[in-house]
Write the structure tokens for this entry.
Amino acid sequence: MKTTLEHPVSGRLVLLAGGTSASGFASAKALLDRGAQVIIVGRDAGKLARCRDELPHAHVQRADLTNEESVAELRKRVFDTWGPVDGVLHLVGGWSGGGGLAGQTDEAYRSLESSLSALRHVSRAFDTDLRLSSAGRTAIVSSVVVSRPTGSSANYAALKSAAETWMLAVDHGLRAHGLNDHGEVRSFGAVFRVRSLAGIEGILAESFAGLWDRDAAPTELVVTELHPG
């Protein structure tokens, strides 16, 4: 629940799904600096311990986000301990490509598919929280290959396209049901397309935190390309 007027995200509870990466660390720091409560979720105990040591004001939770039951248990722990979340940033990802179209094997596809499963599980588990929040925000990191696919990126582009379609549906649900007493949209989703996250972790962090800066909800799903500098 929002507790101060220092920043629109101050006092809000934000969950970083797959947040033990460099992008998750940068996002956690940006949110903490603005007064938010942050929950970093991952399944690597060592990486979670590093987050706990270097970001002592953040909360950490271990979960397998590709497993529906594990995510349901995570949501219950979060709700019972801190209450409903106001934001979710999805950072579970990976890359597999090359070899032209012939190289887009089933094995390579399955290695990427887990990120889509994680998105589905997490967004479903926390959907009610975001709908009821007075300012719910959720976002995914996608790729510029969605609009410019190649043979060597076909698997990756297809799954990122599916993730964006899923987020479009999530956004639609938030807009249809997450309304305040005046019929105004309170919560919405966003897509951040990148060529690579390397070197722009801070830009992603600022862009996500900046979703709470909007005075009014956008009229459609926010899709933004992020570039270095």
